[in-house]
Amino acid sequence: MRSSNPVFTRRGFSRDGGYAGFNAGPQPQTGNPYAGAPTNPYAQPGNPYAQPQVGPQGGAAVPPGAPTRPGVMTIDSVVSRTALTLGTVVAAATAAWITDMPVGLGVLFALVALGLALWQSFKREASPALILSYAVFEGFFLGSISNAINAAAPGAAMQAVIGTMAVFAGVLFMYKQRIIRVTARFTQFVLAAAVGFILLSLVNVVVAMIGGGNGLGLRDGGLGIVFGVIGVILGACFLALDFKMVEDGIAYGAPEKESWLAAFGLTLTLVWIYLEFLRLLAILQGE
Fold first, then answer.
1. What are residue 18's DSSP bridge partners?
2. What predicted TM-score, i.e. pTM, was given to this entire model?
3. Cβ distance 201 to 218 under 8 Å?
4. What's the rounded Cα separation, in Å, for the pair 196 and 212?
5. Tens of pLDDT along 74-94?
6. Nearest to 22 by CA among 128, 165, 178
7. Phi, psi at residue 107, to the nearest 5°?
8. pLDDT digits (tens, 9 = 90+) for 142-163
């Protein structure tokens, strides 16, 4: 099962398993296109990442989910790189906030961040420099737009941060407790909903540019509130997909460099959720 997150669609560590916890070993799956040698580079017969590893005393093999060999993706490596990437975003956003960066300049930085994100998404390997550069420019944009919205709707920025953290914690808890099951059908539904959401947003922007006003009204009033809630829910669904991709990378013993891609994907999703919360709160406080 492929992820709808563009960061992971080119990766092979994926399995159609459902909802096992982190560090779970790969389970044989019938009809899973990613468990076989032709598709999954980490399940190839000659790939050291997919081979059972012998214990230090020659005992039982250690499953790929708990490798003794260094240089593989672990939950610790994902957490540390995610913390570094998000920390860079927060530091850049703080600098933009303190310096009162103009929103116009922030939008320019957002376009640069978008270009860097697309560049990394289509690269075959993770580039830490590229990912951290994206984090810097994205942080500048978030700081400038948050400062502007917070001036019009006091407290909105902090509430958006708290909301984003709550969504992250809630989705992680439900994923670990097997309440959320990431199946092929779930992934297809999220992908279809995300495509529709993005297309509607683009149409709304085009209509606003041509006819002026608020376009289709998707970003203000009652319809804007509904659209914002849908955006937050979609972000939560993407988080579940990200957790599944991290789980599979660990289970299949992906190289440690893949931790940067996991951090990048999680950062993209958290930025999405934060921006949707920020817009939603701005609408609610403007009512």
1. 182
2. 0.76
3. yes
4. 23
5. 999 999 999 999 999 999 999
6. 178
7. -65, -40
8. 999 999 999 988 999 999 999 9
